[in-house]
Amino acid sequence: MLGSCAAALAAIATRSALAEDRQPLREDEPQAREFSYVSDATKVDQKKFPDFKPGDRCSKCQIYEDGPNDMGGCPLFAKRLVAAAGWCTSFG
Fold first, then answer.
1. What is the CA radius of gyration of the chain?
2. Rounded to the nearest 5 degrees, what angle is found at the Cα of 62, between the Cα atoms of 55 and 81?
């Protein structure tokens, strides 16, 4: 059991270290634009994105990975961090 706990802690530490090495995704990057990513979900145009619901944000998305300083990972934006308060069209 101790081995399992140690392995889990090592995986978490490695994941945190990798997250800290990643840079925040900028809204003007091509991939961010492809998914209409915004770093502040309160600024989503609800007329343009009718599926958006107030309160939706990256940190509530099924694929969001917790990270440092209100940022996290997202498989859609490899090697980048997204804002926990952000949103994109792949929210789910």
1. 15
2. 85
Query: Which residue is associated with the tokens 């706990």?
Result: 5
Show the 3-state SS of 18-78. HHHHCEECCCCCHHHHHCCCECCHHHCCCCCCCCCCCCCCHHHCCCCEECCCCEEECHHHC
Calculate mean pLDDT across residues 28-53: 97
Give exposure, 1-21, as e/b (b: 16+ Cβ within 10 Å): eeeeeeeeeeeeeeeeeebee
Burial of 77 (0-12, 13-18, 19+ CB in 10 A): buried
Alpha-carbon distance of 18 to 37, in angstroms, equals 22
Q: Given this model, what pLDDT does residue 45 score?
A: 95
Of 16-25, 29-38, 55-64, 70-79, the range with the lowest mean pLDDT is 16-25
